[in-house]
Amino acid sequence: MRRSVLLLSLLACGGTPNPAGKDMPEASAKTTEEADAFVKEVDAGLRKVWTDAESAQWTLATDITDDHEKAAAKADEATMAYMSEVIPQATDYDGVDASPETLRQIELLKRAAGLPAPSDPEKRARLAEVSNQLASMYGKGKWCPEGGTPDQCQDLAALEAIIGDVSLPPEKRQQAWERWRTVSVPMKPLYEEFVSLGNEGASELGFADMGLLWRSGYDMEPDAFAAEVDRLYAQVSPLYEQLHCHVRAELNEKYGESVVPAKGPIPAHLLGNMWAQDWDQLYPGLTPFPNEPSLDVTAQLEKQGYDSVKMAKTAESFFVSMGLDPLPQTFWERSMLDRPEGREVECHASAWDIGMQDDLRIKMCIQPTQEDLYTLHHELGHNYYFHYYHTLPVLFQSGANDGFHEAIGDAVMLSVTPTYLKSIGLLEEASTTDEAVVNQQLQNALGAIAFLPFGRMIDQWRWDVFAGDVQPDAYNAHWWKLRQQFQGIAPPAGRPADAFDPGAKYHIPGNTPYMRYFLAQILQYQLYRGMCEAAGHQGPLHTCSFYGSKEAGERLKNMLAMGASRPWPEALEAATGTRQMDGQALIEYYQPLMKWLEEQNADRECGW
Length: 608
Ligand code: X8Z
Ligand code: ZN
Hints:
This protein has 24 helices and six strands. By secondary structure, the chain is mainly alpha-helical. Strands 1-2 form a two-stranded antiparallel ribbon. Strand 4 and strand 5 form a beta hairpin. Helix 18 packs antiparallel against helix 19. About 3% of the residues have low confidence.
């Protein structure tokens, strides 16, 4: 979701008007009418600045040039200036006697700056400039040989292809891994400046640092949120540890003790993904029961000549089967579905609603792969959220919390079972034997379970950096400390002193909060279970598909239409009947795999 990146990242959240345990503030001098008028005025003001900023960001992301970068920075600066003006006014309404809708908008406004700017105009302009520079550096990032010609340069896609090709020798993949990380070296001084200016902005708004501002967006106290993250991670990490143990043992066998030691962390370049955040590419080599039917959707997509439009239509048709609206015609006219020739673009997939009026779009460089089919469901999940809440006041046009926004498409994707894929001709055969279930679950887990510690650690790093607990000279070491602690992975070799590896991950230079993706991993199984219930599913959770279920669609639509108008536990309750985020649905879903992994690992020493 793009709007979240700079502008709305914290709108997904918002505090309750009177958080538990706090005394009611003293009555405000403002009247009910004044509060309503303020909220109305802010709604109009935000629509204007956000629409301008989004249009400029769209232009930049689909055509990265210096001029577009300047225009985007200018529009961001105007947004920041507006925020600096209205956010402090919100506190004048503390304790005002107004409707719950008005009170909630005022509370959401206080946390609405994803990137809070200092009120000093020069510093604000500099922050807008630095943040757009960082994002463009990532988008344009390439490794080029010294003294070489431009056609010898390698961009992210080229380097990812090498990392993802598990048949290539480890040295070649290590080289690609290291080359991509040269792109982020020059980001480091800019990132330091970004942290310092952003923190200054946060402190002007009354938050000790940017991390605290981010954590305060979950309808609970920031410390309680951090504890909630720990609780959720403790629920699901045993499954990750089993997966890690099995994968490490297999890689040890494949590459030998000198490349992948049987104990200790796994080298990060051998997991098939540039950031080792998902390990999907390892599935063909790890298939538990190779005699079961193939799950290779990519082969079929290629064979059947799926182009980007057909890929997107395939994802759309799942949502439509549940009774959701087809995407508007303008989606097909305005989206960027393919990498264009002759200009630089940011290929990292994102979903948009420019102007918050159902101008739905995605920006993606679609390839006919299973991974991109997955990402399309993910992006359309964002678009459907935008679509069903676009009539709300803008401050409510956000996920119930930001994890919800990221979870919708993924929850739907859990219903994209082999049986469904066979029904649309993307698998030749589907089987429901116990062996086939383990195959499919391992395939899923290499994406989703491998992701859990990564999703957990990224913002741990940023929280620590923003809080000043980690100084610039320790940025990289701290990154790898957390990578090892949570993921049990290590760099292929010692890192150079000037390395800034966090910058080689899109969301760091792009300033997109990341804990949302961890929450989404938890929430998606809860939402999936809720929709399965609505569809009348009986039997083990992993056997459910709500394809074609209008009842499941109804439940989803109701939640989407709430946006952020109510504290997230209410939205969760509407969709699932519970008010707590809970890793138990994920654990229930993966029960067959957990059992199989424990058997495989019975004689192995797990952990790192
Ligand atoms: O950034 C994304 C989406 C856009 S919101 C493509 N994701 C995270 C990532 O790529 O790192 C989805 C999964 C996690
Ligand atoms: Zn997303």
